[in-house]
Design goal:
The complex is a heterodimer of chains A (about 450) and B (about 160). Chain A has about 450 residues and is α/β, with parallel strands linked by helices. Helices cover about 35% and strands about 30% of the residues of chain A. In chain A, helix 1 packs antiparallel against helix 2, helix 4 runs antiparallel to helix 5 and helix 6 packs antiparallel against helix 7. The radius of gyration of chain A is 33 Å and the shape is elongated. Chain B has 2 domains: about 120 residues; about 35 residues. Classes of the chains: A alpha/beta (about 450), B mainly alpha (about 160). At the A-B interface, helix 1, helix 2 and strand 11 of A face helix 3, helix 4, helix 5 and helix 6 of B.
Chain lengths: ~450, ~160
């Protein structure tokens, strides 16, 4: 129990009066001091009694969105704390979170007023486990205060604990030998509307449109040949949002503009194409995938839930993939061939050896595999990537490469940062078709 | 029941009436001093009526009156202590029927015993030692109770 300022002042007054009474041998002063002390003890007793009543009335119900998750998965936790708040007390309850989790958003603490009533505190928040293992929600912390005293207690007995969250490990790299390519993706297919491009040629069958006969080929082979035109479909783009890391500083104004731009594109996609597809990532972590959502309100509420700086489970730092390493080796070989200086050649050789060693031990990051698995079943031809580019952009390069491997057009939207646009985030460096600033 | 004055103001009026009766009955030579000392908590009570931490100021302002009255008559001083306690509790809204009133009654009883002890002793040292000893015992009892309470609810570490 802690004395608050008012009680500290009264205690000081008691000490001063007692000292004066002793020095002056005056019972009147002693009466004043001792009655103040008795009053302080009375208030203490009253506070303690109400504190115990409050603690004894607490009931905790906690539910997890899922009981078993993988490392880095975000899940919702809902806790209802019902208690009788004694009169004249202010109560604050807060969750004791397991070690190794970060709170992405929501409230983990709540306070009451000073009115005496049964009150239910509802805490809803989302957590992301960063380590694997069994995690226990070990209870709540209760802080009770009035004008004179403050007391807190950690309630970690059985009724306040649980449930346990089982967190399964997730590897950073993909097992070797696993195919990641998107060769099976169907790019060209039949459609109601025909485009201008010729998809294939075939022999004429009875009933074919005579306007589609290719006369040159017919004359060459002396057989009727038909042009099959490519189908025209109006595909909505895949919207990829790269959320900033909570630990990095990002300008709030730029973030708000990004949120507005993403919301606008989602709205446009839903109106024009009847659905929108949004992939939310933060660094090399896939957070949420909103696949072909037809309901605009649900899309917007999902964005509202996720669009904020988040904690990242994994980080890239200038991550080079296999093709990067190979191109660097080639560049070193060219440079080594040009120079005549033996010491420079020796140095370049040692650097090349390092690169080759890295290449030998190189593993595919799980993020690349996840992106590939996410993109394969989608029917899109364009990808819009929204990012604040706060920090390393290696994950964007990897993502764009995966998209380009599937012959998708990639447009990167970033805040207006002229120096970055001219250097590291040029379309060529990123591999994107366009890099533009969002409005 | 709706009173024409706030509860704390009502207890102050009771205190004022008591002081006036005392000065009228005892007719001390410096009778105006008691009226001046009575005015002090009245002014503080009025000035701090919107403050959150006014209890400390009210108690401080009331102590000179308690000492002055006790110097002449211990029971008059005790009456002023009871009224000051009632003013503070009423200002806090902690003087409702039930547990609050019982706590206040316990306070009145305890201060009655203290005043009787001090009055009987006539000196400071012995009552001060007894009060100090009782304070230590109470603090120890409260500490043990709190330890047992925490042990009951904190549970074993997971």
């Amino acid at each position: 129990m802690r004395l608050k300022r008012c009680a500290q002042g009264i205690s000081l007054l008691v000490i001063l009066l007692s000292a004066c009474a002793l020095i002056l041998d005056d019972p009147a002063i002693l009466l004043a001091g001792s009655t103040l002390l008795a009053g302080l003890f009375g208030l203490w007793y009253s506070f303690d009694r109400r504190f115990r009543q409050a603690v004894a009335s607490i009931r905790v119900t906690r539910s997890l969105e899922r009981a078993v998750v993988r490392t880095g998965t975000t899940l919702r936790v809902t806790t209802a704390i019902t208690m009788q708040v004694p009169s004249h007390l202010q109560v604050t309850v807060s969750e004791i979170l397991p070690a190794g989790v970060v709170v992405q958003d929501g409230e983990t603490a709540a306070s009451s007023g000073t009115s005496s009533s049964p009150e239910t505190f509802r805490l809803a928040y989302r957590i992301t486990p960063l380590v694997h293992g069994t995690m226990h929600f070990s209870g709540i912390t209760l802080v009770v205060q009035d004008y004179f005293f403050e007391n807190s207690i950690v309630l970690s007995a059985e009724p306040f604990r649980g449930p346990a969250l089982s967190v399964q490990p997730r590897g950073l790299f993909e097992p070797s030998g696993r195919g990641l390519t998107a060769e099976t993706r169907e790019i060209e297919k039949m459609a109601l509307l025909s485009g201008l491009g010729v998809r294939a040629m075939r022999e004429y069958y009875a009933g074919d449109d005579l306007r589609r006969i290719d006369w040159k080929l017919t004359a060459k082979h002396n057989k009727l040949f038909i042009r099959e035109y490519a189908g025209v479909v109006n595909l909505p783009p895949l919207i990829v949002v790269d959320l900033p890391w909570r630990g990095a500083s990002c300008p709030a104004e730029a973030f708000e503009r990004m949120v507005a731009a993403v919301a606008g594109m989602v709205e446009h996609s839903t109106k024009m194409h009847q659905y929108s597809t949004v992939l939310l990532v933060s660094g090399p972590n896939i957070l949420h995938f909103l696949i072909e959502e037809k309901d605009l309100q649900r899309s917007i509420s999902a964005l509202r839930e996720w669009m904020h700086p988040v904690e990242r489970t994994a980080h890239f730092y200038r991550m080079a993939d296999r093709s990067d390493l190979r191109s660097r080796v080639r560049a070193l070989e060219i440079q080594s061939g040009r120079t005549q200086d033996p010491s420079t050649q020796k140095f370049l050789g040692s650097v090349k050896k390092q690169y080759l060693r890295s290449l030998g031990a190189h593993q595919t990051h799980a993020f690349n595999a996840q992106v590939a698995r996410t993109l394969i079943p989608l029917t899109v031809d364009e990808v819009y990537v929204f990012s604040l580019v706060a920090g390393d952009a290696s994950h964007l390069v990897q993502l764009i490469r995966q998209a380009k491997a599937m012959k998708l057009r990639v447009h990167v939207r970033i805040p207006q940062l002229p120096d970055l646009v001219s250097s590291t985030l040029s379309p060529g460096r990123l591999g994107a078709d366009t890099v533009e600033a969002f409005a | 029941m709706n009173l024409p004055v706030r509860k704390d103001g009502g207890f102050f009026l009771l205190l004022a009436a008591g002081v006036l009766i005392f000065t009228g009955a005892a007719q001390p030579p410096l009778w105006y001093l008691y009226l001046l000392l009575l005015a002090l908590p009245g002014i503080v009570l009025y000035v701090t009526r919107t403050w959150n931490d006014r209890m400390f100021y009210i108690l401080c302002a009331g102590q000179p009156l308690v000492i002055a009255l006790s110097a002449v008559q211990v029971w008059a001083g005790l009456f002023s202590v009871w009224m000051l306690g009632a003013i503070v509790l009423a200002a806090l809204g902690m003087l409702e029927p039930g547990d609050d009133l019982l706590t206040y009654a316990a306070f009145c009883g305890a201060t009655l015993v203290i005043a009787a002890g001090i009055d009987a002793s006539g000196h400071v040292l012995l009552p001060l030692l007894i009060i100090g000893g009782l304070t230590a015992v109470f603090a120890m009892v409260f500490t043990v109770r709190e330890y047992r309470f925490r042990k009951q609810y904190a549970g074993a570490p997971p």
